[in-house]
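Entry 14. Structure prediction run on the chain below.
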Amino acid sequence: MADNLAGVVKTTFEVNLDIPNIQIEHVEVDREGHYRMTVHSTECGTYCHKCGHFIDHFHSHGEFITLRHLSIFNQQVNIYFRPDRYQCMECADRPTTTQQPAWYEYRSRQTQAFEKHILLACVNSTVSDVSIKEHLGYEAVRGIIDRYIAKGVDWATIKKLEVIGLDEIALKKGTKILSR
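Output returned:
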């Protein structure tokens, strides 16, 4: 096997980004060693935000978005993406709608794959620890947790409680519980 590789120098390699329906246009490495990948969507069309019809009449590109993705070789990866905008020919005012790919949440600055990675990193760690280890702001980590973890319980879905566990919590150190 070594004979087959003698004299061969590979300057490229493949990495599965696990982001569906994109094409990579350009990759560069910045001064800090972070990867910046410019990509575009290969999906055509979206649903009109007003009438709900599927629209595929291309209008323009949206503003560039930078999204944090999973690291490669322990180096940060940023996806540089400009979503397509489509015009609805069904609505009288011909509104435009920005395509929303399934691999990131609107107004999030991370891909879904990266957000799931952050959630796993939170297991047995504090938000501060994850923030430091992943070079991500504390509020960004909290935002990811808030998007994925329910804040309340839908009691209508619970028919019967078999066992309830209670744990008393002292709000201030040294608080005494008075009994009569």
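The chain is about 20% helix and 25% strand.
Filed with the rest of this week's runs.
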